Fold this protein.
Amino acid sequence: MPIHPLVTGLRFARSELVRCLEGVSAEDAQHRPLPMNCLSWMVGHMANHEHRCWVMAAQGRALVPGLDELVGYGKPASTPPLEEMWAAWRTITQAADEYLDTLAAEMLEQHLEWQGEMVPESIGTMLLRNTYHYWFHIGEAHAARQMLGHTNLPDFVGDLSAVRF
């Protein structure tokens, strides 16, 4: 089955987060330029979003216990180690892809069920929200890196020529 274009878009956004954070040191990743969150938090936060949508709700699995408490929306600020957040992100996105690879166009209007209740957003809307969430934090990460004095940052969206629809 071909990969749905919305899934392709999500994967491209993921690759842009990786590109945005290339070369960031562990120390800089944990620096919190107030009032923003630190870069390592952003990686974990995006992992958490995918974990909740595509692993927990879609597959009924929990792979990284405690992640929501550490980097979830509305939780107290934290400065987790960058490598731990990248490890969680890689584990979660790999598991998420197992589900995302199965999506067909007609499934995008369906709703997942979580803890006995229907998720209010459709799968398609969840995909869009997840993708746009990445772009939001990519912009924030660029700003944080500029505040840290980093130079030679990506200045535009990456190479789309390799993206296949």
